[in-house]
Amino acid sequence: MEYIAIVLSAILVNNIVLAQFLGLCPFFGVSNRISTAAGMGGAVMFVMTIAAIVTYMISHYILIPFDLIYLRTVTYILVISSLVQMVEIILKKVSPPLYQALGIFLPLMTTNCAILGVAILVIQNEYTLMSGVVFAIAHAIGFTLALVILAGIREQLELVNVPKGMRGNPVILVAAGLLALAFMGFAGIV
Amino acid sequence: MDQAKNFTKGLIRENPVFILMLGLCPALGTTTSAFNGMGMGLATMFVVIMSNIVVSLIKNFVPSKVRIPCYIVVIASFVTIVDLVMAAFMSPLHEQLGLFIPLIVVNCFVLGRAEAFASKNTLWSSIIDGTGMGLGFTLALTLLGASREILGSNAIFGFQFLQADGMLVFVLAPGAFIALGYLIALANKLNK
């Protein structure tokens, strides 16, 4: 039951992009095609889950026992950037097709604040390792969902005659705002 | 480069939020009021100036292959300083900004200045660039925060100018996207 609450809350109620404003750069950057949006979502899910596990271990077995909490930001970001590098090397060796599919999105993951944000939230909410993993996966699903929906809207927007001043980024932001408004309808189900 | 131009480019012509669309997460997440937006902007400005200074000083000693991790560690150290100082002296604001203070580390705009400017320029121009860009970011966040506060709660910097219910949606998440969309449209118009 606890896991269901975490999943529903992360995907619909507190959607990581639309309600918590994390990971906005890829949200606007790679949402021009549904296929690239889905690829980015997959990559984020992969790295976010591993990052949550690794930072959980570091936090509970190194930082807390040795009273080094103030080093949290520095360690996490270093761990995440080396993790991204490592995932990239392993994927290149083990599964070249997947590596090809993810392409440029993998290295960009380091500066995706959703990854660091979820890692910090798992520790702040004092989850166990298992709930932490569920939390990370659910947030990644929420991220993918928002990204794919926005990509769908943007594909349609290309066919629309938008007023001159609103073309480009402004109209995409307003569309994202309306999407966030729709997601607010889920408030209260958990 | 002309230093005056170097300073003013961050304010309008290359404003990180309105024109370059960088650092959007804190720009949308923390601007529920003008005061919060300004606090976040000033915290980021401190980090960008300090990291520009250090990066431009160490640029000749860092091998180019490992420069990004090095820059990130420099930035993360200053973010930790800001985090601890704010927790100690500005506890209510720190509480409000919450997660977004440690997340200054992954603000692409800070790393962008280190990589694109400070690693190629002298100490003095890097300080000017950091100050100009930081001010531009603060300006954008304050403006966005003020417009959301005015529309959402009929107040500015906490001063209630109208005793009535505002349009609550502007304080909530969707209003952030919509307000920024229209501000960018306005900035585009003014830039032409």
List the helices and strands and how they pair.
The complex is a heterodimer of chains A (190) and B (192).
Chain A (H helix, E strand, L loop, with lengths): L1 H12 L10 H6 L4 H30 L8 H23 L1 H7 L2 H4 L4 H12 L4 H29 L11 H15 L7
Chain B lengths: L2 H6 L15 H6 L4 H25 L8 H23 L1 H7 L10 H11 L4 H31 L1 E2 L2 E2 L12 H19 L1
Antiparallel strand pairs in B: 1-2
Helix pairs in contact in B: 3-4, 3-6, 3-7, 4-5, 4-6
Molecular structure report:
The complex is a heterodimer of chains A (190) and B (192). Chain A is mainly α and 190 residues long. The longest helix of chain A has 30 residues. Chain B has one domain. In chain B, 67% of the residues lie in helices and 2% in strands. Chain B contains eight helices and two strands, in the order αααααααββα. Chain B has a two-stranded antiparallel ribbon. In chain B, helix 3 packs parallel to helix 6. The radius of gyration of chain B is 17 Å and the shape is globular. The chains are: A mainly alpha (190), B mainly alpha (192). The interface between A and B is large, with 43 and 40 residues.
